[in-house]
Amino acid sequence: MRLLFSATPAYGHVLPLVPLMQAAVGLGHSVRLLTSAGFRTDLSEELPVEVELLEAGAMPGDFSEDAARRTGADVFHPTPPVIGEIFGGSRVDLAIDESIERAAAWGAELVVAEPFDAVGPIVAARLGIDWHQAGLGPAVPAVIGDEIHRVALARYGRLGLEPVAASSYIDPCPPLLQDPDWSPTTQVLQVRPQAHRRSKDADLELSDGANDKPTVLVTLGTIFSDPDTLAATVAAVADTGVNVIATIGSSLRHPTAGQTLSEQPNRTDSARVQYVPFVPLAQLLDRVDLVVGAGGVGTVLGTLAHGLPMVLWPQGADQPINAARASASGTSVTVDSAAEIAGAVAVVLGNSAYRERAQKVADEIADRPEPAAVIAEITNPYMHSVK
């Protein structure tokens, strides 16, 4: 089959879909990713070589700025209606015509779209094909999902289309992290999440810890990596005397985020701080005892898949939701400022219950079906009908 994956052009929206793409390729399907051409370079090392891009639409900076102009709101701290305008309005308006044209020309037969992507479902409606929604983590709260759908409805109308419900929801979130109030409206297919990994590991040189103390990974992800916030977080963690590995991400607001940080020498006191560029999370997790982050879904699920506890300082987007669910599961402590980080790190490292709870979640994750089983389930009906 020709499987079209559709996603917002950002790491946190695309990388969770990569294992499903890999599985689809492994099962012999033809796979394309529908996203912005501006994301091609960033994805060059992330996608299976067999997966090509269908390029359409704008990058997040462009459609977020467009939404800001329309609403007059701060898109980095948006309300649900603003989120609806960003993903159901501005992004769709800047992508849908190209998306339909390219998907039709390629002959897409089935669409898989992430929850913030309103483009893929519209493409599926236009082409008269089914689509499935692939979750990124805890289910998107109804108040947000409903707003995205509400704003997108006008785009269906302009194209003379009616929305078509997803055939299934592919859920990577273990029960301990899922919103207990979530009420799925379609069939749920469980899938095993995993930390971001590439087919080939990135070149990375890290020295051993400066002492026999724990090692803590500090990562604020790829969007909210404000250099001042990162520096404050690293300093707070390092002051506890542990060894620190800190990732330098990228940021919409700070395109040069981390450049000065990367030039800082390692600390010479009881803690050693090592800065690393953006590398797959899976390469770092085996080296650490605790992760301090902002609560991005990739970091949360990847960390828990490795059975590691967390300290989370949410910065925006869906991070407060993810942090709240992680805290409720007993695997993490959520803080509201850099001043609270050192104390939280000490608490989590000093209490084995957090590690034990994280390992319980890791065991739940390991019991979930692999991506190949999910791809087989959503494609088999069509393969049989062809025969």
Give an overview in words.
This protein has helices at about 10-15, 20-25, 40-45, 60-70, 80-95, 95-105, 120-125, 140-160, 225-240, 260, 280-285, 295-305, 320-330, 340-350, 350-365, 370-385; strands at about 1-5, 30-35, 50-55, 110-115, 130-135, 170, 190, 215-220, 245, 275, 290-295, 310, 330-335. The protein is an alpha/beta fold and about 375 residues long. Strands 3-2-1-4-5-6-7 form a 7-stranded parallel β-sheet, sandwiched between helices. A 6-stranded parallel β-sheet has the order 10-9-8-11-12-13, sandwiched between helices. Helix 2 (about 20-25) crosses helix 16 and helix 6 packs across helix 7. The chain is globular, with a radius of gyration of 21 Å.
| Order of neighbouring strands in the sheet with most strands | 3-2-1-4-5-6-7
How far is the first residue's CA from the last residue's CA? 12 Å
List low-confidence stretches: 251-270
Backbone CA Rg? 21 Å
Shape: globular
Task: Give the biggest sheet.
Answer: 7 strands, parallel
How do the SSEs run, as a string of H and E? EHHEHEHHHEHEHEEEHEHEHEHEHEHHH
- The structure class reads alpha/beta
What is the residue-mean pLDDT, rounded to a whole number?
A: 88
How much strand? 5-15%
Number of strands: 13
Q: Helix proportion of residues, in percent?
A: 40-55%
